[in-house]
From TrEMBL:
Record-linked SUPFAM superfamilies: CBS-domain pair (SSF54631), HprK N-terminal domain-like (SSF75138), Thioesterase/thiol ester dehydrase-isomerase (SSF54637), Winged helix' DNA-binding domain (SSF46785)
Keywords on record: CBS domain
InterPro entries (alphabetical): CBS_dom, CBS_dom_sf, Diverse_CBS-Domain, DRTGG, HotDog_dom_sf, Ser_kin/Pase_Hpr-like_N_sf, Thioestr_dom, WH-like_DNA-bd_sf
Identification of the protein by name: CBS domain-containing protein
Domain CBS: 197-254, 256-314
Pfam families the record matches: 4HBT, CBS, DRTGG, HTH_24
SMART domains membership: CBS
Length: 434
């Protein structure tokens, strides 16, 4: 039977998109405490189908698929620009396709403004009206208001009209940055993207015996199974090694590994891979924040997903991507060159400590690829920053592999600028084979 928490989540999920939600309303509708309702609403927000907006409240929004993550909802725009909703609240769940800056004549502005757009403009009431009628939302900059007739029109057309105190340039930069951050998130594979859900997962129950394990083993050809209680909470893991030499009527809970290692659905696949290799685990249970089993991942699925992600086109660029693109091999030598760009510097105009660390990790990764095909996970690292490195300096990075085994590597790295040693690093790495 579903718990109260699960019933509330199901109730929220069934609400129409755009519906306003409150703790008191949920508590009254389902006869639960306000504390229970609040926790469920927060989980729904974490799962991405509820959004809370200051001065508006909590509303049901459409859950985004991974392929549409780069699209922002108007509700998210309100939070990004610290805005105030003047009208059209029922349209906050809708997504914007692109934003248009209204710094032109009215006719020209309307040629670029289409349904699903966000027009960023000042206190130009006629522009507000025409944009709404074209099916676009409006973001008024400079803290300006609009007339009541426009607010009523926004309510009627269910398209938001929002006011923010920021100027047009700042707002455009903030929204662009948010879209860019979403693109980077889209690239990061999470456990939820590859897990096998519980509906397709065979599990053993507390109270089962080794005979039940044998039956599942014959049916699935698998030898590892999670053990759950009547509420699907994870209790343990059992493998073929645990049952060797025991009678068929032995209780599973007597032989299972209690409090097994598990992961969450929002964990990155790379972190899960690291955990599985480090702990020697072939199968990892995936649980939610209440320890309820929601699926499993296997080591094979994880490594396959990592290989596939490396073949995908890049759409958002992190500082690691910038470093990887800047670093070039010096012909005829086992060394690399990299120019210090403005993105790599701190407020003093010298290379930041974090960027320097990323540089030596990238160099170690490339050096070890000559010995092993796979990815590197740093276990231990000592970095010595000897001299500041100025903007536009050309660095020479010289990795020296001291030791490499089947799963581990040790690399020493010297970094030079104009022939002078400016930094050193020593890395102990774990290697994830492809």
């Amino acid at each position: 039977m579903a718990t109260k928490h699960e019933q509330i989540l199901h109730y929220i999920d069934e609400l129409p998109v755009g519906q306003k939600i409150s703790v008191r309303q949920i508590a009254k509708a389902l006869s639960v405490s306000e504390g229970t309702a609040y926790r469920a609403i927060k989980e729904a927000e974490n799962k991405g189908y509820v959004s809370t907006i200051e001065r508006v409240g909590t509303i049901r929004i459409e859950r985004k698929k991974k392929e549409n993550i780069e699209k922002l909802t108007f509700a998210e725009v309100v939070n990004i620009v610290d805005g105030q909703v003047l009208g059209g609240r029922t349209g906050l769940h809708k997504t914007l396709n692109k934003f248009v800056i209204g710094a032109m004549e009215l006719d020209a502005m309307m040629r670029y403004t289409e349904a699903g757009n966000l027009l960023i403009v000042g206190n130009r009431v006629k522009a507000h009206e025409l944009a709404l009628k074209a099916g676009a939302a409006v973001l008024i900059t400079g803290g300006f208001d609009t007339v009541d007739a426009i607010k009523r029109l926004a309510d009627e057309l269910q398209m938001p009209i929002i006011s923010t105190s920021y100027d047009t340039f700042t707002v455009a930069t903030m929204i662009n940055r948010a879209i860019y951050d979403q693109l980077i998130k889209k690239e990061i594979l999470l456990v939820e993207d590859i897990l096998i859900p519980t509906e397709r997962t065979e599990v053993l129950r507390v109270g089962n015996t080794i005979e039940n394990w044998t039956t599942l083993n014959r049916q699935t050809k698998h030898s590892r199974f999670p053990v759950v209680d009547e509420n699907m909470r994870l209790q343990g893991m059992v493998t073929s090694r645990d049952i060797l030499g025991l009678s068929a009527d032995t209780q599973i809970e007597k032989v299972m590994t209690k409090s097994p290692i598990f992961t969450g659905e929002k964990t990155s696949v790379a972190s899960a891979a690291h955990m599985m290799v480090w702990e020697g685990i072939e199968l990892l249970p995936v649980v939610d924040n209440r320890n309820i089993l929601i699926g499993i991942i296997s080591r094979q699925d994880v490594l396959k997903a990592l290989q596939m992600s490396q073949r995908q086109p890049q759409v958002g660029e992190t500082i690691d991507d910038v470093i990887a693109n800047q670093m070039n091999v010096i012909q005829g030598e086992d060394k690399f060159e990299c120019e210090v760009t403005p993105q790599m510097t701190n407020h003093l105009g010298t290379i930041s400590y974090g960027v320097f660390t990323a540089l030596v990790i990238e160099a170690a990764n490339r050096a070890l690829r000559g010995y092993k095909r796979g990815e590197l996970v740093v276990e231990n690292m000592s970095v010595y920053f000897l001299k500041p490195v100025q903007l536009e300096s050309i660095l020479t990075i010289a990795p020296n592999i001291l030791e490499v085994g089947r799963k581990f590597g040790k690399v020493e790295i010297d970094v030079f600028n104009e022939g002078k040693l400016v930094g050193k690093a020593m890395l102990m790495c774990q290697l994830l084979e492809r």
